[in-house]
Write a structure and sequence with these properties.
- This protein is mainly α.
- The chain is 81% helix and 0% strand.
- It has three helices and no strands.
- The longest helix is centred in the last third of the chain and has 31 residues.
- The radius of gyration is 17 Å and the shape is flat.
- The two termini are 32 Å apart.
């Protein structure tokens, strides 16, 4: 049972990591696809800004989910 749960968590983490949110690996894959289609590199400043926005999006999502869980536990 323990190995089943560990495998399930690992597979879920891999799937979520490939979502094309810029701060995750899926976002990097999206940048590579865009660069291969346009045949030009994305400027470093733009890539950094998009990654920062994606990271902030992930942090906000974590805060919202955590607050929801806390309020559900208290109420």
């Amino acid at each position: 049972n323990l190995f089943y749960v560990m495998a399930l968590i690992s597979i879920n983490l891999a799937i979520i990591n490939m979502v094309p949110i810029p701060a995750l690996d899926g976002g990097r894959l999206l940048f590579i696809i865009i660069e291969s289609i346009t045949r030009r590199k994305i400027p470093q400043r733009i890539a950094q800004s998009v990654n920062t926005f994606g990271f902030m999006l992930i942090i906000v999502l974590i805060l919202i989910v955590s607050a929801h869980d806390i309020f559900r536990y208290l109420g």
